[in-house]
Design goal:
With 216 residues, this protein is α/β, with parallel strands linked by helices. 37% of the residues lie in helices and 19% in strands. It contains seven helices and nine strands. It has a seven-stranded parallel sheet, sandwiched between helices. Strands 7-8 form a two-stranded parallel sheet. The chain is globular.
């Protein structure tokens, strides 16, 4: 298989690329990047792009599956408009180009409680994004809705550190519907995506944080 990834320089995206490169079933792993990733492998191809001007020419031929680990936070984007540009406009444009190139399978990292009807801006944008991706002509769309994603990031995020401590030390609190909000590690999310990409899934699927947290 030949994979196409965006968001490969991010926390989860880089972990996913490393898993794909170790997998013999993946003969090529292509990443669209703004800045080169510090990763070298004979199967790995980096394509420098400007996501403001992403075009069909930037999409490699004959890719079978696309992975979107792309995104930002409202804090980083600073404004709601800039957040929507990255997390909706850039991703939907990329997805349409994938559809044009007849890529059959699309995996998307979204967020817990994503819904176009949400009263919260972040979840509303994520929900609108999910609806758009699901409307495209892919044979398979798999959407991941992690709660907090934690691990050894380059930057310290206090809320993530707190959520990680709760998940490790007070896991007994997460029962019933509360299981859905359990935090997951970047490794668990990357492994879940990789494993699902090997299952020949069809249709539209949503993987909640509870299921991601079970991945070893």
């Amino acid at each position: 298989m030949k994979a196409l990834v965006i968001g490969g320089s991010g926390f989860t995206g880089k972990k996913l690329i490393e898993l794909l490169l170790k997998d013999k079933d993946y003969t090529k792993v292509c990443a669209l990047v703004r800045n080169e990733i510090d990763l070298i492998d004979e199967k790995f191809i980096q394509i420098k792009v400007d996501f403001e001007a992403l075009s069909s020419e930037n999409i490699p031929e004959c890719c079978d599956i696309a992975f979107c680990c792309f995104g930002t936070t409202i804090r980083k984007a600073q404004t709601k408009n800039d957040f929507r540009k990255v997390d909706f406009e850039y991703i939907t444009h990329f997805a349409k180009l994938c559809e044009m190139h007849c890529i059959k399978e699309f995996h998307l990292i979204s967020a817990i409680w994503a819904s176009p009807r949400s009263i919260f801006f972040y979840q509303k944008v994520k929900g609108e994004l999910e609806c758009f991706i699901n409307s495209l002509n892919f044979e398979t769309v798999v959407i991941y809705r992690p709660s907090v994603i934690y691990g050894n990031r380059e930057e310290f995020r206090p809320f993530e550190a707190f959520a990680a401590w709760i998940s490790r030390n007070m896991n007994f609190l997460f029962v019933g519907k509360l299981k859905r909000i359990v935090a997951v590690t970047g490794d668990q999310l990357a492994k879940t995506i990789h494993q699902n990409s090997k299952k020949n899934l069809l249709g539209r699927l949503i993987i909640e944080s509870e299921e991601i947290s079970k991945t070893q």
